[in-house]
Amino acid sequence: MAAAQGRLSDGAGGMDEAKGAEGEARDKGSTAPPAFVAAVDALRVARLRPQIEVEPTGAPQRLAPHTYALEAAVVDGDEDLADGRLVLLHDPAGHDAWQGTFRLVTLVRAELEPEMAADPLLPDVCWSWLTGALQARGLTYGEPSGTVTRASSHYFGGLSARPSASQIEIRASWTPREGRGGVPDTAAHLASWCDLLAQVAGLPPAAPGDASVVTLPQRRDPQAR
Predict the structure, then answer these.
(1) Residue 84 lies in a domain
(2) Which residues, given as ranges, of the chain have pLDDT below 70?
(3) CA-to-CA dists, residue 72 to 8, 54, 69, 215, angstroms
(4) Which of 225, 81, 106, 126 is CA-nearest to residue 175?
(5) pTM of the predicted structure, to 2 decimals
(6) pLDDT tens digit string along 80-111?
(7) Total domains in the fold of the chain
(8) How many secondary structure helices (H) and strands (E) does the chain include?
């Protein structure tokens, strides 16, 4: 997971303001609202596909009164195919922009084949992967927003031997529907987020037989962990 931490060091929507690997849920202990504690507990016990390694990481402290963050990497042997961070925000007083008391914020990144990166429809497709992952698990959400960015690196001089590299980055946030006790189904949202990670990494769908799912091809030279 060290490689994932390094690639995420430039942050996403304030994610660089991390303090403490277990986030505020542990730091504040019993002072956190019961709904937030329940939402975090559900994240900690969620069952995910084995290719995805998930662990707590530092959470940004200025985005909401209560925050918790997870970091994940899609792993194939000793190679990371994609990585990302998911942050849970909670404001018991509610937030006008969220239209709720909880908000999920994410950053997902993966390397691309150069020809795939040149596809003009790629940003729209990647955004549809996010919304499709939520809808596939029957999740209701509101106020989605985000960006899809693709970047290419070309090397010159002493670095000219390196092949050109392309990367896709998805930054997004959405408001999960709150259920009983004002607690959203964070475990299901985490599972859908991991579905997105796996799709960006080029893994086949967890549920076989869905021919409508399109994934990125495996990279020729995934970054070693």
Answers:
(1) yes
(2) 1-30, 114, 206-225
(3) 11, 4, 10, 19
(4) 106
(5) 0.77
(6) 889 999 999 999 998 899 999 999 999 999 98
(7) 1
(8) 6, 8
CA 107, CA 52: separation in Å to the nearest integer?
A: 15
Residue appearing with tokens 């709150």: 178
Q: Look-up: residue for tokens 């986030």?
A: 23
Query: CB burial class (10 A; 0-12, 13-18, 19+) of residue 172?
Result: buried
- Does residue 25 fall inside a structural domain? no
Do the beta carbons of residue 223 and residue 100 sit within 8 Å?
A: no
Quick one: pLDDT at residue 207? 57
Q: 110 lies in which domain range?
A: 34-201
Task: Check residue 180 and report its DSSP letter.
Answer: G
Cα–Cα separations (whole angstroms), residue 69 to 24, 52, 56, 138? 9, 16, 6, 23
